């Protein structure tokens, strides 16, 4: 697959003030930056000196006096009388030329070395800030984002910073510096016409480059869009390789991909033609300027107002000047792109999480071992919908007494997992309160709340790491012995002993190399390792066979005396021992009570129970 180009709307307004936002990240290296800038100026001075040396050499060789041109001498900082004759011999000047050439490159390298660190530190700081900020954002943000797109945004932003630093500081500024110096020198040393022609050509060149570059934007954008479209398709198709194979749609996918590639190819071609126009126009302006200047110079040499050395000097200046100018169109466009990308990166930082700690939020004061009475969980008339137009929970009220187990059962989509998410405060209820002990979860810090709750989620996703590390994630400071203990509790030991690499076996992307039941057991082990006072099991054993399920439930039962727990289950047989069972239907509690109470009640629960019993019997 090709590397995706920068897909940026180039017609977008560029906010140059973004540069200001970068400044705080540069502060810590201000001395380094100053040195780098000094190196840059010194390197430029060396560049400017070189044509003068060339002139000296040529004049020396052609036997003309260096002092032939009056103005050069008079306005030189060093008067020729003070310079010993040997320094002006061509040989000495050649050595000096070599030295300056080397100094120019060496200073440039030094500047890059010094400044590279600054850029990298800034990128490191900004990347970390963005990463932390993204983790601070609410679940909704993460559900709605496209991971690929987000990763691109961050990557483009940091690349943009890199580019901006390199080219803004070390291409645009030095080029402008050089242009003014050269024009200044030409004006003072060789008269108005030389200075004016140079100035005029530079101005025409810049205007032409900027206008043409702007005109090209739409073609570049079309090419980039085609590029990104074909890429998205390819990635999506590869991610779904299994589905493609199940339906033997390889050919269909290839055709779709090729359609997009065709568009990309065409767009690229138009793009290249416009580049031809840009480069051709620039070359024309440069050639005309150089021809005009040489024409002037030749005339002056003929009239003996100038030496051959001066002719060489002017020629050298022009060459030196237009090489960096050549990049100007490119740099201008890229800097605009970089600024847009950086702005997008910083925009991520301005996104505010919807769920925030209150200013006076306290810690959730749960003392697992001492204050049992504080651990009750209370839902009071909780209304909630992910969308304002569709209410999912319609006035839910229930209490889980400390160290009790409450089960929630009900049809798929009735809102069971939503209750767990609200308890974690991934969302705030639209109405009603959720309390743990005396504290509303709205008034405690999210960190202390989430630290107190362990969950085995309905869909477990694992990190692409070893089984051991995935389990240890529940408590990164746990010792190996502790991890082994929970592996036993989750009945994973037998499975792990069959693996050639044991606990160090890698689980694959999102844990896809493990079976559904194995993944669930890893999730159970991980939650147990966290040792929180409150536990949520959301269909924690749904992928297990009845035998393993019974064994794990037994293990959970043994320790559940230590937890206040909420169990969500489809299979009613797994919740018969709960202290209380809540039956949820369409976001409302329709029944609640113990297993026997509910059977006697002969409502929905007893019907479900009958159905499941019959199925099991069959
Ligand atoms: N992030 C979300 N945005 C919008 N709607 C959602 C979101 N998450 C869940 N829903 C909707 O809320 C409803 C309740 O979902 P929930 O996950 O709580 O159901 P559940 O009772 O756990 O079902 P299941 O037994 O299938 O797991 C569903 O209709 C679902 O489509
Ligand atoms: Mg669910």
Task: Give descriptors for this structure.
ABC transporter transmembrane region fold, Rossmann fold, binds magnesium ion, six-stranded mixed sheet, 3 domains
The level-1 CATH class of the largest domain: Mainly Alpha
Q: Do you know the CATH architecture of the largest domain?
A: Up-down Bundle
> Which percent band covers the strand fraction?
5-15%
What's the average pLDDT? 84
State the low-pLDDT regions, or none: 1-10, 66-80, 369-373
As laid out across the biggest beta sheet, the strand order is: 6-7-8-3-9-10
Work out the count of structural domains: 3
Which bin fits the share of residues in helices? 55-70%
Written account of the structure:
The protein has 618 residues and is of the alpha/beta class. The protein has 3 domains: 18-350, ABC transporter type 1, transmembrane domain (ABC transporter transmembrane region fold), CATH 1.20.1560; 360-452 and 532-618, P-loop containing nucleotide triphosphate hydrolases (Rossmann fold, 3-Layer(aba) Sandwich), CATH 3.40.50.300; 460-526, no CATH class. The protein is 61% helix and 9% strand. The protein is built from 20 helices and 10 strands. Helix 4 packs antiparallel against helix 6 and helix 6 (147-190) crosses helix 11 (328-350). It is elongated, with a radius of gyration of 37 Å. It starts with 17 loop residues before the first helix and ends with a helix. Bound molecules: adenosine-5'-triphosphate and magnesium ion. Adenosine-5'-triphosphate (ATP) is lined by residues 143, 386-387, 392, 412-418, 458.
């Amino acid at each position: 697959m090709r590397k995706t180009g920068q897909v940026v709307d180039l017609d977008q307004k560029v906010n140059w003030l973004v540069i200001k936002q970068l400044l705080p990240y540069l502060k810590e290296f201000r001395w380094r930056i100053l040195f780098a800038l000094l190196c840059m100026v010194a390197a430029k001075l060396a560049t400017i000196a070189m044509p003068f040396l060339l002139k000296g050499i040529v004049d020396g060789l052609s036997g003309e006096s260096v002092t032939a041109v009056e103005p050069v001498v008079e306005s030189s900082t060093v008067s020729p009388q003070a310079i010993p004759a040997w320094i002006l011999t061509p040989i000495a000047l050649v050595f000096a030329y070599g030295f300056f050439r080397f100094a120019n490159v060496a200073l440039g390298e030094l500047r890059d070395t010094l400044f590279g660190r600054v850029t990298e530190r800034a990128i490191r700081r900004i990347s970390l800030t963005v990463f932390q900020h993204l983790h601070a954002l609410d679940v909704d943000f993460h559900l709605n984002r496209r991971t690929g797109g987000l990763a691109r945004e961050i990557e483009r932003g940091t690349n943009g910073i890199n580019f901006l630093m390199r080219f803004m500081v070390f291409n645009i500024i030095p080029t402008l510096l050089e242009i003014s110096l050269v024009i200044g020198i030409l004006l003072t040393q060789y008269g108005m016409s030389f200075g004016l022609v140079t100035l005029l050509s530079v101005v025409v060149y810049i205007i032409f480059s900027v206008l043409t570059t702007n005109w090209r934007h739409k073609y570049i954008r079309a090419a980039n869009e085609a590029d990104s479209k074909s890429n998205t398709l390819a990635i999506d198709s590869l991610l779904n390789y299994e589905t493609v194979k199940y339906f033997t749609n390889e050919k269909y996918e290839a055709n779709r991909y090729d359609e997009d590639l065709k568009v990309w190819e065409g767009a690229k071609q138009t793009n290249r033609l416009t580049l031809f126009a840009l480069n051709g126009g620039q070359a024309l302006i440069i050639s005309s300027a150089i021809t005009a200047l040489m024409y002037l110079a030749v005339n002056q040499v003929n009239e003996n107002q100038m030496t051959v050395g001066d002719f060489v000097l002017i020629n050298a200046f022009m060459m030196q000047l237009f090489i960096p100018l050549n990049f100007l169109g490119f740099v201008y466009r890229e800097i605009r792109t970089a600024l847009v990308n950086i702005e997008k990166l910083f925009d991520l930082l301005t996104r505010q999480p919807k769920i925030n700690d209150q200013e006076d939020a306290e810690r959730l004061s749960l003392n697992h071992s001492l204050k049992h009475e504080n651990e009750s969980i209370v839902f009071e008339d909780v209304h909630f919908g992910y969308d304002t137009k569709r209410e999912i929970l319609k006035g839910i009220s229930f209490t889980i007494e400390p160290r009790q187990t409450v089960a929630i059962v009900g049809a798929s989509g009735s809102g069971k997992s939503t209750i767990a998410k609200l308890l974690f405060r991934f969302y705030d209820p639209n109405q009603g309160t959720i309390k743990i002990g005396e504290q509303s979860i709205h008034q405690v810090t999210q960190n202390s709340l989430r630290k107190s709750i362990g969950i085995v989620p309905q869909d477990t996703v694992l990190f692409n790491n070893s089984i051991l590390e995935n389990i240890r994630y529940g408590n990164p400071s746990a010792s190996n012995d502790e991890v082994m203990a929970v592996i036993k509790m989750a009945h994973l030991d037998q499975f792990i002993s069959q693996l050639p690499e044991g606990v160090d076996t890698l689980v694959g992307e999102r844990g896809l190399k493990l079976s559904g039941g194995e993944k669930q057991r890893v999730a159970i082990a991980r939650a147990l390792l966290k040792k929180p006072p409150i536990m949520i099991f959301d269909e924690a054993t749904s992928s297990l066979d009845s035998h393993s399920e019974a064994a794990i439930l037994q293990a959970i039962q043994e320790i559940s005396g230590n937890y206040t727990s909420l169990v969500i289950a489809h299979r009613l047989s797994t919740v018969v021992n709960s202290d209380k069972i809540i039956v949820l239907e369409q976001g409302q509690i329709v029944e609640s009570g113990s297993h026997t109470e509910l059977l006697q009640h002969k409502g929905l629960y007893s019907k479900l129970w009958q159905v499941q019993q019959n199925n099991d019997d069959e």
